[in-house]
Hints:
Pfam families: Esterase. With 298 residues, the protein is of the alpha/beta class. The chain has one domain: Rossmann fold (3-Layer(aba) Sandwich), CATH 3.40.50.1820. Helix content is 34%, strand content 20%.
Amino acid sequence: MMALCACAVTTAAPVPPPLAPPLVPYVLENTEVRDIRAAALHRDYQLFVALPDSYATSGRRYPVVFITDANYAFPVARSIASRLHKHAGLEEVIVVGLSYANGESGNYSRRRDYTPTVSRNGGDRSDMPGRQQAFGEAAAYGRFIATEVFPLIARQYRADMDRKIFVGHSYGSLLGLQILLTRPDTFDHYILGSPSLWYDRGVMFDREKAYAAGHRDMPASIFFGIGSRETLAPGKTRSRAEERFDMVADLRDFHGALAAHRYPGLTSTVKVFADEDHASVFPLVLTHGLRSYLKRKQ
């Protein structure tokens, strides 16, 4: 009789695949991030800073572009400014991106910081749970730029603070208009794309009239840009209420009102870009706006 042997059968453990090398994040060259406390606003922000290629070796000072909605617009502006220098011979610039408030969504932060009033048309619901939507703090945010952002940039970089450029789009352009109609000499050049002039039933038209009543000059250079498709929706009657506004017509009306005052210190241009809409027009506005101000290399 044969004895049965219960023998353990062993198999080699599978060899794990070699670990893939860790992915390296893509970093924009010559860029920095600086934290900044907005003391009067009791909020924290970041500044995204792009330095020109020649910054490390030149020793000279550069014009400064301050751009809103930095989470989207900063890398676009940095790239366009660099290409305009390399391929069109325009001056190099420092680009400073103005971020949204730390811990807040972009929509929440920009609606509060970029709008001049609490709209009488009502507002969108907050996208931040537990926090009521906020509007109407553009004046305070503009003071933050002038009194806290400017000094930091002047201390830390070789910035020509006599040549400051503001760039905004949509609500960002409302912020620019708030500054323009309060202290126009805060910036030397304004690039304002697709301003939301319908906001709060056209409140910026009222602000423009109030400025004109108290001033004989507006020392500013302005480039307005907008897409030709930013017009009234078919079948709608024009007004300055949500979904019934014509942004192209509003911008032409606003520009016409500025021009009618014949301010000796004001230079203002409007360009309507064919076949572009609110989402697509910004890079063109920025490109043409920078070209209208920056000098060419001699």
